[in-house]
Amino acid sequence: MKSQKEIFYIKEAINSRWSVRELQRQIGSLLYERLLLSANKDKVLELAEKGHELKESKDLVKDPFVLEFLDIKENTNYLESDLEKNILEHLKEFLLELGKGFMFVGSHVRLTLEEDHFYPDLVFYNRLLKCFVIIDLKIGKVTHQDIGQMQMYVNYYDREIKSDDENPTVGILLSTLKNKTVVKYTLPKDNKNIFSSSYKLHLPTEKELIDAVEEEKKNLELNE
């Protein structure tokens, strides 16, 4: 009898039309375990029965995202521009990590507000949720200024770019330190469209994921 994890990978491989190599990568990056980190009991059963379904904006977010294919060593000095350049050079692999339904729109797509120009790092569109997804890359800790800037990007796309039949824009701050407490108190309580998530430049072990969950629980308890 197959386990829930095995059933999940079979469903996802069929639904997403993964190659053998892509399937091996998703298993190696602990995709199933990462998706379970924020799942309740119903979601756990759903993952096995149906695979990963996109129903709302938070389903687009993993924590952490795994970017081992960039071949950047974590202990070396690198810039946000290096990170972005490497992602663009490995766009196919990055789309696989993002998940279902993503299409690349562009990098540094200019937004003009009066005489000021702004350039979100990466812009995607998810055809399943019918929404734009803006990703900003950060090295170090996310600040309230980063969150405010992302809020501006999301507002601009919602008011000027998206059509009436499309869903609200999603913003993801992808960083080495997501700083959830600052995110929590900078954004309104009913926020459903801006997220802070971390990334790893190596394949995580199951122990690393478990430790990350325990650390997250402690942080939440301290902030309550």
Description of the molecule:
With about 220 residues, the protein is α/β, with parallel strands linked by helices. It folds into two domains: about 1-55; about 55-224, Trna Endonuclease, Chain: A, domain 1 (3-Layer(aba) Sandwich). It is about 45% helix and about 20% strand. The chain has nine helices and eight strands. It has helices at about 5-15, 20-30, 30-35, 40-50, 80-90, 90-100, 145-160, 180-185, 205-224; strands at about 65, 100-105, 110-115, 115-120, 120-125, 130-140, 170-175, 195-200. A six-stranded mixed sheet has the order 1-8-7-6-5-2. A hairpin with a 4-residue loop joins strand 5 (about 120-125) and strand 6. It is globular, with a radius of gyration of 17 Å. The protein starts with a helix and ends with a helix. The mean pLDDT is about 85.
User: How would you sum up the major sheet?
Assistant: 6 strands, mixed
Overall pLDDT metric: 87
Q: Which overall shape is indicated by the principal axes computed on the Cα atoms?
A: globular
Helix content: 40-55%
* Rg of Cα set: 17 Å
How many beta-strand segments?
8
Helical/strand content category: alpha/beta
Tally of structural domains? 2
Element-by-element helix/strand order: HHHHEHHEEEEEHEHEH
Give the DSSP E fraction (strand runs of 2 or more residues).
Answer: 15-25%
Tally of alpha and pi helices: 9
CATH topology of the largest domain: Trna Endonuclease, Chain: A, domain 1
